[in-house]
Amino acid sequence: MLFNTMQYLLFLPVVVFVYYCLPERMRNVWLLVVSYYFYMQWNPIYIILLFACTLITYTGGMILEKLKNVQSENQDVQNIGKRTICFVLCIVLNLGILAFFKYFTFGLSLLNRVLEYMQMEVFSWKYNILLPVGISFYILQSLGYLIDVYKGEIGAEKSFICYALFVSFFPQLVAGPIERSKNLLIQLNEPHAFVYENVRKGLLFILYGLFLKMVIADRAAMIVDVVYESSNVYSGIYIIVAAFFFSIQIYCDFYGYSIIARGSALLMGIHLMDNFNAPYFSKSVKEFWHRWHMSLSYWFRDYLYIPLGGSRKGEVRKEMNRMLVFAVSGLWHGASLAFLCWGIFHGATQILEDMIERLRPINDAVQKAVCFSKRLLHTAVTFVLVTFAWIPFRCGGLEETVEVLRNMCRLDNWVRILEGALSTEMLGGKIYMNVLLGSILVLFIVDYQKYKGRNVVELFFGQEWWFRTAVIMAMVFIILLFGCYGEIYDTQQFIYFQF
Protein backbone atom coordinates (compact mmCIF):
# COMPACT_ATOMS: atom_id res chain seq x y z
CA MET A 1 0.00 0.00 0.00
CA LEU A 2 1.58 3.27 -1.15
CA PHE A 3 1.20 6.58 0.63
CA ASN A 4 0.38 8.33 -2.64
CA THR A 5 -2.74 6.27 -3.39
CA MET A 6 -6.42 6.70 -2.64
CA GLN A 7 -6.29 3.36 -0.82
CA TYR A 8 -3.98 4.81 1.83
CA LEU A 9 -5.93 8.05 2.08
CA LEU A 10 -8.99 5.96 2.98
CA PHE A 11 -7.04 3.55 5.18
CA LEU A 12 -5.39 6.17 7.41
CA PRO A 13 -8.52 8.02 8.67
CA VAL A 14 -10.16 4.70 9.57
CA VAL A 15 -7.06 3.63 11.52
CA VAL A 16 -6.89 6.93 13.42
CA PHE A 17 -10.63 7.05 14.15
CA VAL A 18 -10.74 3.50 15.54
CA TYR A 19 -7.50 4.11 17.45
CA TYR A 20 -9.02 6.93 19.50
CA CYS A 21 -12.32 5.09 19.96
CA LEU A 22 -10.67 2.04 21.51
CA PRO A 23 -9.65 1.80 25.17
CA GLU A 24 -5.94 2.37 25.74
CA ARG A 25 -5.15 -1.31 26.43
CA MET A 26 -6.47 -2.27 22.97
CA ARG A 27 -4.81 0.45 20.91
CA ASN A 28 -1.49 -1.31 20.37
CA VAL A 29 -3.33 -4.48 19.36
CA TRP A 30 -5.27 -2.48 16.79
CA LEU A 31 -2.13 -0.81 15.43
CA LEU A 32 -0.35 -4.16 15.21
CA VAL A 33 -3.25 -5.70 13.24
CA VAL A 34 -3.44 -2.80 10.77
CA SER A 35 0.37 -2.70 10.45
CA TYR A 36 0.43 -6.36 9.44
CA TYR A 37 -2.49 -5.75 7.09
CA PHE A 38 -0.61 -2.77 5.61
CA TYR A 39 2.47 -4.91 4.98
CA MET A 40 0.49 -7.83 3.56
CA GLN A 41 -0.91 -5.61 0.81
CA TRP A 42 2.46 -5.94 -0.91
CA ASN A 43 3.05 -9.70 -0.61
CA PRO A 44 1.22 -11.67 2.12
CA ILE A 45 3.70 -14.54 2.31
CA TYR A 46 6.55 -12.30 3.45
CA ILE A 47 4.70 -11.44 6.64
CA ILE A 48 6.33 -14.66 7.88
CA LEU A 49 9.77 -13.03 7.63
CA LEU A 50 8.60 -9.97 9.53
CA PHE A 51 7.14 -12.16 12.26
CA ALA A 52 10.26 -14.37 12.38
CA CYS A 53 12.55 -11.35 12.77
CA THR A 54 10.26 -10.02 15.51
CA LEU A 55 10.14 -13.35 17.35
CA ILE A 56 13.91 -13.89 17.19
CA THR A 57 14.84 -10.46 18.56
CA TYR A 58 12.05 -10.41 21.16
CA THR A 59 13.07 -13.82 22.50
CA GLY A 60 16.73 -12.87 22.34
CA GLY A 61 16.08 -9.68 24.30
CA MET A 62 14.17 -11.56 27.01
CA ILE A 63 16.95 -14.17 27.35
CA LEU A 64 19.65 -11.49 27.51
CA GLU A 65 17.72 -9.68 30.23
CA LYS A 66 17.21 -12.88 32.24
CA LEU A 67 20.89 -13.89 31.99
CA LYS A 68 21.93 -10.41 33.04
CA ASN A 69 19.72 -10.56 36.14
CA VAL A 70 21.01 -14.03 37.08
CA GLN A 71 24.56 -12.82 36.64
CA SER A 72 23.93 -9.81 38.90
CA GLU A 73 22.29 -11.91 41.63
CA ASN A 74 24.68 -14.89 41.67
CA GLN A 75 27.85 -13.32 40.26
CA ASP A 76 27.87 -16.14 37.69
CA VAL A 77 30.69 -15.38 35.27
CA GLN A 78 29.54 -18.14 32.92
CA ASN A 79 26.44 -16.10 32.09
CA ILE A 80 28.66 -13.58 30.32
CA GLY A 81 29.54 -16.22 27.76
CA LYS A 82 25.93 -17.37 27.53
CA ARG A 83 24.75 -13.80 26.90
CA THR A 84 27.37 -13.37 24.19
CA ILE A 85 26.40 -16.64 22.49
CA CYS A 86 22.70 -15.70 22.61
CA PHE A 87 23.43 -12.21 21.27
CA VAL A 88 25.64 -13.43 18.43
CA LEU A 89 23.15 -16.14 17.48
CA CYS A 90 20.27 -13.63 17.20
CA ILE A 91 22.44 -11.27 15.15
CA VAL A 92 23.53 -14.07 12.81
CA LEU A 93 19.97 -15.35 12.31
CA ASN A 94 18.65 -11.90 11.38
CA LEU A 95 21.58 -11.00 9.17
CA GLY A 96 21.31 -14.45 7.60
CA ILE A 97 17.72 -13.72 6.59
CA LEU A 98 18.78 -10.38 5.13
CA ALA A 99 21.81 -11.88 3.37
CA PHE A 100 19.82 -14.66 1.72
CA PHE A 101 17.03 -12.50 0.34
CA LYS A 102 19.16 -9.50 -0.56
CA TYR A 103 22.65 -10.76 -1.35
CA PHE A 104 22.44 -14.43 -2.33
CA THR A 105 21.91 -13.79 -6.04
CA PHE A 106 24.57 -11.06 -6.06
CA GLY A 107 27.09 -13.26 -4.26
CA LEU A 108 26.38 -16.19 -6.58
CA SER A 109 26.90 -13.99 -9.65
CA LEU A 110 30.26 -12.79 -8.30
CA LEU A 111 31.30 -16.37 -7.57
CA ASN A 112 30.32 -17.48 -11.06
CA ARG A 113 32.36 -14.65 -12.56
CA VAL A 114 35.40 -15.90 -10.70
CA LEU A 115 34.71 -19.48 -11.72
CA GLU A 116 34.31 -18.44 -15.36
CA TYR A 117 37.60 -16.56 -15.20
CA MET A 118 39.25 -19.70 -13.80
CA GLN A 119 37.52 -21.76 -16.50
CA MET A 120 35.62 -23.84 -13.96
CA GLU A 121 32.01 -24.98 -13.91
CA VAL A 122 29.59 -22.36 -12.64
CA PHE A 123 26.69 -22.84 -10.22
CA SER A 124 23.19 -22.65 -11.67
CA TRP A 125 20.25 -21.15 -9.76
CA LYS A 126 16.85 -21.32 -11.43
CA TYR A 127 14.79 -19.45 -8.83
CA ASN A 128 14.18 -15.73 -8.58
CA ILE A 129 14.39 -14.38 -5.05
CA LEU A 130 12.01 -11.46 -4.61
CA LEU A 131 13.37 -8.92 -2.14
CA PRO A 132 10.83 -8.36 0.66
CA VAL A 133 9.95 -4.68 0.82
CA GLY A 134 11.38 -2.87 3.84
CA ILE A 135 13.46 -5.84 5.06
CA SER A 136 16.64 -3.76 5.39
CA PHE A 137 14.82 -1.21 7.54
CA TYR A 138 12.99 -3.44 9.99
CA ILE A 139 15.97 -5.76 10.47
CA LEU A 140 18.28 -2.85 11.33
CA GLN A 141 15.66 -1.45 13.69
CA SER A 142 15.23 -4.77 15.51
CA LEU A 143 19.00 -5.33 15.67
CA GLY A 144 19.42 -1.85 17.17
CA TYR A 145 16.98 -2.87 19.93
CA LEU A 146 18.85 -6.11 20.56
CA ILE A 147 22.21 -4.31 20.79
CA ASP A 148 20.75 -1.78 23.23
CA VAL A 149 19.46 -4.60 25.46
CA TYR A 150 22.80 -6.42 25.30
CA LYS A 151 24.69 -3.26 26.26
CA GLY A 152 22.24 -2.59 29.09
CA GLU A 153 21.10 0.75 27.70
CA ILE A 154 17.44 -0.33 27.88
CA GLY A 155 15.55 -3.15 29.49
CA ALA A 156 13.99 -5.90 27.41
CA GLU A 157 10.40 -5.21 26.37
CA LYS A 158 8.10 -7.60 28.22
CA SER A 159 5.02 -7.15 26.02
CA PHE A 160 5.26 -9.07 22.76
CA ILE A 161 2.43 -6.97 21.30
CA CYS A 162 4.25 -3.74 22.02
CA TYR A 163 7.56 -5.03 20.68
CA ALA A 164 5.96 -6.48 17.54
CA LEU A 165 4.37 -3.09 16.92
CA PHE A 166 7.76 -1.42 17.40
CA VAL A 167 9.17 -3.54 14.57
CA SER A 168 6.14 -3.27 12.27
CA PHE A 169 4.61 0.19 12.94
CA PHE A 170 3.09 0.87 9.52
CA PRO A 171 4.06 4.54 8.88
CA GLN A 172 7.79 3.77 9.01
CA LEU A 173 7.79 0.02 8.34
CA VAL A 174 8.96 -0.13 4.73
CA ALA A 175 11.29 2.90 4.36
CA GLY A 176 12.05 4.27 7.80
CA PRO A 177 13.07 6.31 9.59
CA ILE A 178 14.94 3.57 11.42
CA GLU A 179 13.68 4.33 14.90
CA ARG A 180 15.50 3.69 18.15
CA SER A 181 13.90 1.74 20.94
CA LYS A 182 14.60 4.68 23.26
CA ASN A 183 12.22 6.79 21.18
CA LEU A 184 9.51 4.70 19.55
CA LEU A 185 9.28 1.76 21.96
CA ILE A 186 8.90 4.08 24.94
CA GLN A 187 6.13 6.02 23.17
CA LEU A 188 4.23 2.83 22.37
CA ASN A 189 4.07 2.09 26.10
CA GLU A 190 2.53 5.48 26.87
CA PRO A 191 -1.12 6.58 26.58
CA HIS A 192 -1.93 9.08 23.82
CA ALA A 193 -4.85 11.44 24.17
CA PHE A 194 -6.39 13.18 21.17
CA VAL A 195 -4.53 16.47 20.68
CA TYR A 196 -5.80 18.87 18.03
CA GLU A 197 -2.33 20.37 17.53
CA ASN A 198 -0.89 16.96 16.62
CA VAL A 199 -3.64 16.37 14.07
CA ARG A 200 -3.15 19.81 12.54
CA LYS A 201 0.61 19.37 12.20
CA GLY A 202 0.24 15.78 11.03
CA LEU A 203 -2.09 16.71 8.19
CA LEU A 204 0.29 19.48 7.12
CA PHE A 205 3.18 16.99 7.05
CA ILE A 206 1.14 14.60 4.91
CA LEU A 207 0.12 17.33 2.49
CA TYR A 208 3.67 18.62 2.08
CA GLY A 209 4.96 15.07 1.67
CA LEU A 210 2.46 14.40 -1.12
CA PHE A 211 3.53 17.66 -2.76
CA LEU A 212 7.19 16.60 -2.67
CA LYS A 213 6.44 13.12 -3.99
CA MET A 214 3.73 13.68 -6.58
CA VAL A 215 4.57 17.12 -7.93
CA ILE A 216 8.38 17.24 -7.71
CA ALA A 217 9.76 13.69 -7.46
CA ASP A 218 7.41 12.01 -9.92
CA ARG A 219 7.58 14.90 -12.39
CA ALA A 220 11.38 14.87 -12.24
CA ALA A 221 11.25 11.10 -12.76
CA MET A 222 9.74 11.69 -16.21
CA ILE A 223 12.96 13.37 -17.31
CA VAL A 224 15.30 11.07 -15.40
CA ASP A 225 13.77 7.79 -16.59
CA VAL A 226 13.76 8.73 -20.28
CA VAL A 227 17.37 9.96 -20.25
CA TYR A 228 18.88 7.12 -18.23
CA GLU A 229 17.00 4.44 -20.14
CA SER A 230 18.13 5.90 -23.50
CA SER A 231 21.45 7.50 -22.62
CA ASN A 232 22.84 6.72 -26.07
CA VAL A 233 20.10 8.92 -27.58
CA TYR A 234 19.84 11.57 -24.86
CA SER A 235 23.56 11.97 -24.27
CA GLY A 236 25.80 14.83 -23.23
CA ILE A 237 24.00 17.75 -21.63
CA TYR A 238 20.80 15.70 -21.30
CA ILE A 239 22.54 13.32 -18.88
CA ILE A 240 23.96 16.22 -16.89
CA VAL A 241 20.49 17.75 -16.56
CA ALA A 242 18.98 14.34 -15.74
CA ALA A 243 21.63 13.84 -13.04
CA PHE A 244 20.58 17.15 -11.48
CA PHE A 245 16.91 16.18 -11.58
CA PHE A 246 17.66 12.78 -10.09
CA SER A 247 19.28 14.50 -7.11
CA ILE A 248 16.02 16.38 -6.67
CA GLN A 249 13.91 13.31 -7.37
CA ILE A 250 15.53 10.99 -4.85
CA TYR A 251 15.51 13.66 -2.16
CA CYS A 252 11.87 14.62 -2.64
CA ASP A 253 10.87 10.98 -3.03
CA PHE A 254 12.55 9.81 0.19
CA TYR A 255 11.91 13.02 2.15
CA GLY A 256 8.31 12.96 0.97
CA TYR A 257 7.88 9.41 2.30
CA SER A 258 9.57 10.27 5.60
CA ILE A 259 7.46 13.34 6.25
CA ILE A 260 4.22 11.51 5.36
CA ALA A 261 5.30 8.82 7.81
CA ARG A 262 5.89 11.47 10.49
CA GLY A 263 2.51 13.04 9.78
CA SER A 264 0.68 9.71 9.86
CA ALA A 265 2.24 8.78 13.21
CA LEU A 266 1.64 12.23 14.65
CA LEU A 267 -2.11 11.86 14.04
CA MET A 268 -1.96 9.22 16.78
CA GLY A 269 0.31 11.29 19.02
CA ILE A 270 3.49 9.35 18.13
CA HIS A 271 6.57 11.40 17.24
CA LEU A 272 8.98 9.90 14.71
CA MET A 273 12.41 11.40 14.20
CA ASP A 274 13.11 13.85 11.39
CA ASN A 275 15.11 11.94 8.78
CA PHE A 276 16.35 14.93 6.74
CA ASN A 277 17.68 18.36 7.60
CA ALA A 278 18.17 20.36 4.38
CA PRO A 279 21.03 18.12 3.12
CA TYR A 280 21.64 19.98 -0.15
CA PHE A 281 22.71 23.09 1.74
CA SER A 282 25.66 21.16 3.19
CA LYS A 283 29.13 22.62 2.75
CA SER A 284 30.91 19.27 2.73
CA VAL A 285 30.12 15.62 2.06
CA LYS A 286 30.69 14.94 5.76
CA GLU A 287 28.02 17.51 6.65
CA PHE A 288 25.76 16.03 3.98
CA TRP A 289 25.76 12.71 5.82
CA HIS A 290 24.85 14.48 9.04
CA ARG A 291 21.73 15.77 7.28
CA TRP A 292 20.76 12.98 4.83
CA HIS A 293 18.93 9.84 5.98
CA MET A 294 19.97 10.70 9.52
CA SER A 295 18.42 7.61 11.11
CA LEU A 296 20.67 5.35 8.98
CA SER A 297 23.74 7.53 9.55
CA TYR A 298 23.23 7.45 13.32
CA TRP A 299 22.65 3.69 13.22
CA PHE A 300 25.93 3.01 11.43
CA ARG A 301 27.74 5.48 13.65
CA ASP A 302 26.51 3.99 16.94
CA TYR A 303 26.39 0.29 16.03
CA LEU A 304 29.29 -0.09 13.58
CA TYR A 305 31.67 2.89 13.43
CA ILE A 306 32.07 3.41 17.20
CA PRO A 307 32.36 -0.33 18.03
CA LEU A 308 35.09 -0.58 15.36
CA GLY A 309 37.05 2.04 17.28
CA GLY A 310 35.68 5.20 15.70
CA SER A 311 38.28 7.97 15.83
CA ARG A 312 39.83 6.79 19.11
CA LYS A 313 42.71 4.79 17.63
CA GLY A 314 44.50 7.27 15.41
CA GLU A 315 43.90 8.88 12.03
CA VAL A 316 44.70 5.84 9.89
CA ARG A 317 42.34 3.57 11.85
CA LYS A 318 39.65 6.26 11.79
CA GLU A 319 39.76 6.53 8.00
CA MET A 320 39.79 2.75 7.62
CA ASN A 321 36.71 2.53 9.83
CA ARG A 322 35.01 5.24 7.82
CA MET A 323 35.70 3.50 4.51
CA LEU A 324 34.38 0.22 5.89
CA VAL A 325 31.21 1.87 7.17
CA PHE A 326 30.49 3.55 3.84
CA ALA A 327 31.27 0.37 1.90
CA VAL A 328 28.72 -1.44 4.10
CA SER A 329 26.31 1.47 3.64
CA GLY A 330 26.65 1.14 -0.13
CA LEU A 331 25.90 -2.58 -0.02
CA TRP A 332 23.01 -1.95 2.37
CA HIS A 333 21.44 0.24 -0.31
CA GLY A 334 21.77 -2.40 -3.00
CA ALA A 335 23.41 -5.72 -3.87
CA SER A 336 25.52 -4.38 -6.70
CA LEU A 337 29.07 -3.26 -7.37
CA ALA A 338 27.61 0.10 -8.41
CA PHE A 339 26.23 0.66 -4.91
CA LEU A 340 29.52 -0.46 -3.40
CA CYS A 341 31.34 2.11 -5.56
CA TRP A 342 28.80 4.74 -4.49
CA GLY A 343 29.55 4.06 -0.84
CA ILE A 344 33.32 3.98 -1.36
CA PHE A 345 33.16 7.27 -3.26
CA HIS A 346 31.42 8.98 -0.33
CA GLY A 347 33.93 7.54 2.12
CA ALA A 348 36.93 8.54 -0.02
CA THR A 349 35.54 12.04 -0.53
CA GLN A 350 35.31 12.57 3.24
CA ILE A 351 38.88 11.33 3.72
CA LEU A 352 40.00 13.84 1.08
CA GLU A 353 38.06 16.60 2.85
CA ASP A 354 39.83 15.77 6.12
CA MET A 355 43.22 15.92 4.39
CA ILE A 356 42.44 19.32 2.86
CA GLU A 357 41.13 20.59 6.21
CA ARG A 358 44.38 19.67 7.94
CA LEU A 359 46.38 21.59 5.33
CA ARG A 360 44.46 24.83 5.79
CA PRO A 361 45.92 27.66 7.88
CA ILE A 362 44.27 28.28 11.23
CA ASN A 363 42.82 31.68 10.27
CA ASP A 364 40.98 30.10 7.33
CA ALA A 365 38.28 28.89 9.73
CA VAL A 366 37.43 32.49 10.54
CA GLN A 367 37.33 33.45 6.86
CA LYS A 368 35.12 30.46 6.12
CA ALA A 369 32.62 31.58 8.76
CA VAL A 370 32.19 35.10 7.40
CA CYS A 371 32.81 34.83 3.66
CA PHE A 372 29.59 34.25 1.69
CA SER A 373 31.38 33.41 -1.55
CA LYS A 374 33.41 30.67 0.13
CA ARG A 375 30.31 29.16 1.75
CA LEU A 376 28.49 29.31 -1.60
CA LEU A 377 31.41 27.62 -3.37
CA HIS A 378 31.58 24.83 -0.80
CA THR A 379 27.84 24.24 -1.06
CA ALA A 380 27.98 24.14 -4.87
CA VAL A 381 30.97 21.77 -4.94
CA THR A 382 29.31 19.47 -2.41
CA PHE A 383 26.10 19.37 -4.43
CA VAL A 384 28.03 18.55 -7.62
CA LEU A 385 29.94 15.74 -5.89
CA VAL A 386 26.78 14.26 -4.40
CA THR A 387 24.97 14.57 -7.73
CA PHE A 388 27.82 12.83 -9.54
CA ALA A 389 27.75 10.04 -6.95
CA TRP A 390 24.02 9.51 -7.56
CA ILE A 391 24.76 8.32 -11.14
CA PRO A 392 25.79 4.74 -10.19
CA PHE A 393 23.02 4.80 -7.58
CA ARG A 394 20.45 5.49 -10.32
CA CYS A 395 21.99 3.09 -12.83
CA GLY A 396 22.10 0.21 -10.37
CA GLY A 397 24.80 -1.70 -12.26
CA LEU A 398 28.47 -1.07 -12.92
CA GLU A 399 28.25 -1.65 -16.67
CA GLU A 400 25.26 0.70 -16.98
CA THR A 401 27.12 3.35 -14.97
CA VAL A 402 30.16 3.19 -17.24
CA GLU A 403 27.91 3.49 -20.30
CA VAL A 404 26.08 6.53 -18.90
CA LEU A 405 29.36 8.25 -17.93
CA ARG A 406 30.76 7.61 -21.40
CA ASN A 407 27.68 9.09 -23.07
CA MET A 408 27.71 12.05 -20.69
CA CYS A 409 31.04 13.15 -22.15
CA ARG A 410 29.40 13.70 -25.55
CA LEU A 411 28.60 17.40 -25.22
CA ASP A 412 27.12 17.76 -28.68
CA ASN A 413 23.48 18.66 -28.04
CA TRP A 414 23.46 21.57 -25.58
CA VAL A 415 21.66 23.81 -28.08
CA ARG A 416 18.56 21.61 -27.97
CA ILE A 417 18.32 22.15 -24.21
CA LEU A 418 18.37 25.91 -24.71
CA GLU A 419 15.65 25.55 -27.32
CA GLY A 420 13.36 23.92 -24.73
CA ALA A 421 13.57 20.40 -26.14
CA LEU A 422 13.67 18.87 -22.67
CA SER A 423 10.33 20.28 -21.53
CA THR A 424 8.52 19.47 -24.78
CA GLU A 425 9.98 16.00 -25.33
CA MET A 426 9.70 14.63 -21.78
CA LEU A 427 7.26 16.71 -19.76
CA GLY A 428 4.66 17.40 -22.41
CA GLY A 429 5.08 21.18 -22.51
CA LYS A 430 6.83 24.16 -20.95
CA ILE A 431 4.06 24.70 -18.41
CA TYR A 432 4.99 21.45 -16.68
CA MET A 433 8.65 22.43 -16.61
CA ASN A 434 7.70 25.80 -15.11
CA VAL A 435 5.57 24.09 -12.45
CA LEU A 436 8.41 21.70 -11.67
CA LEU A 437 10.97 24.48 -11.36
CA GLY A 438 8.56 26.60 -9.32
CA SER A 439 7.95 23.68 -6.97
CA ILE A 440 11.69 23.17 -6.58
CA LEU A 441 11.93 26.85 -5.63
CA VAL A 442 9.33 26.26 -2.89
CA LEU A 443 11.43 23.34 -1.65
CA PHE A 444 14.52 25.58 -1.69
CA ILE A 445 12.81 28.25 0.42
CA VAL A 446 11.45 25.77 2.97
CA ASP A 447 14.77 23.93 3.28
CA TYR A 448 16.70 27.17 3.63
CA GLN A 449 14.55 28.15 6.59
CA LYS A 450 15.14 24.71 8.06
CA TYR A 451 18.88 24.95 7.43
CA LYS A 452 18.95 28.20 9.37
CA GLY A 453 17.48 26.38 12.34
CA ARG A 454 13.99 27.81 12.11
CA ASN A 455 10.92 25.70 12.88
CA VAL A 456 9.09 25.89 9.55
CA VAL A 457 5.88 24.41 10.95
CA GLU A 458 5.72 26.94 13.76
CA LEU A 459 6.49 29.73 11.28
CA PHE A 460 3.61 28.57 9.09
CA PHE A 461 1.07 28.29 11.88
CA GLY A 462 2.19 31.68 13.18
CA GLN A 463 0.81 33.37 10.06
CA GLU A 464 -2.68 34.80 9.60
CA TRP A 465 -5.50 32.32 8.91
CA TRP A 466 -6.10 33.63 5.39
CA PHE A 467 -2.45 33.06 4.47
CA ARG A 468 -2.45 29.51 5.84
CA THR A 469 -5.69 28.74 4.02
CA ALA A 470 -4.35 30.13 0.74
CA VAL A 471 -1.13 28.09 0.99
CA ILE A 472 -2.97 24.84 1.79
CA MET A 473 -5.49 25.37 -1.02
CA ALA A 474 -2.67 26.18 -3.45
CA MET A 475 -0.83 22.96 -2.51
CA VAL A 476 -4.00 20.89 -2.91
CA PHE A 477 -4.70 22.54 -6.26
CA ILE A 478 -1.15 21.93 -7.54
CA ILE A 479 -1.20 18.30 -6.40
CA LEU A 480 -4.55 17.65 -8.10
CA LEU A 481 -3.70 19.54 -11.28
CA PHE A 482 0.01 18.83 -11.78
CA GLY A 483 0.69 15.82 -9.56
CA CYS A 484 1.37 12.41 -11.08
CA TYR A 485 -1.39 9.97 -10.22
CA GLY A 486 -3.98 7.76 -11.84
CA GLU A 487 -3.69 4.74 -14.09
CA ILE A 488 -1.97 6.63 -16.89
CA TYR A 489 1.03 7.28 -14.63
CA ASP A 490 1.11 3.81 -13.01
CA THR A 491 1.43 5.17 -9.46
CA GLN A 492 5.12 5.60 -8.70
CA GLN A 493 6.60 3.42 -5.97
CA PHE A 494 8.90 5.15 -3.51
CA ILE A 495 12.55 4.66 -4.48
CA TYR A 496 13.73 3.44 -1.08
CA PHE A 497 11.17 0.60 -1.03
CA GLN A 498 13.72 -1.45 -3.00
CA PHE A 499 16.28 -1.21 -0.23
Report on this structure.
This protein is an all-alpha fold and 499 residues long. It has 21 helices and no strands. It has helices at residues 6-21, 24-40, 47-74, 78-117, 135-151, 160-168, 181-188, 196-229, 237-266, 285-291, 294-305, 315-333, 337-359, 364-370, 372-395, 398-408, 414-418, 421-426, 430-451, 456-461, 465-482. Helix 3 (47-74) packs parallel to helix 5 (135-151), helix 4 packs antiparallel against helix 5 and helix 11 (294-305) crosses helix 12. The longest helix has 40 residues, at 78-117. The protein starts with 5 loop residues before the first helix and ends in a 17-residue tail after the last helix. 36% of the residues are buried. The mean pLDDT is 86.
Topology summary:
Blueprint: H1 6-21, H2 24-40, H3 47-74, H4 78-117, H5 135-151, H6 160-168, H7 181-188, H8 196-229, H9 237-266, H10 285-291, H11 294-305, H12 315-333, H13 337-359, H14 364-370, H15 372-395, H16 398-408, H17 414-418, H18 421-426, H19 430-451, H20 456-461, H21 465-482
Helix pairs in contact: 1-2, 2-6, 3-4, 3-5, 3-6, 4-5, 6-7, 8-9, 8-19, 8-21, 9-15, 11-12, 12-13, 13-15, 15-16
The helical percent reads over 70%
Mean pLDDT across every amino acid position: 86
Could you give the distance between the termini? 16 Å
**How would a textbook summarize the main sheet?**
none
Helix count equals 21
What structural class do the secondary elements suggest? mainly alpha
Q: Low-confidence parts, pLDDT < 50 over ≥5 residues?
A: none
SSE order, as H and E? HHHHHHHHHHHHHHHHHHHHH
Radius of gyration: 24 Å
How many strand segments? 0
Give the strand content.
under 5%
Outline: globular
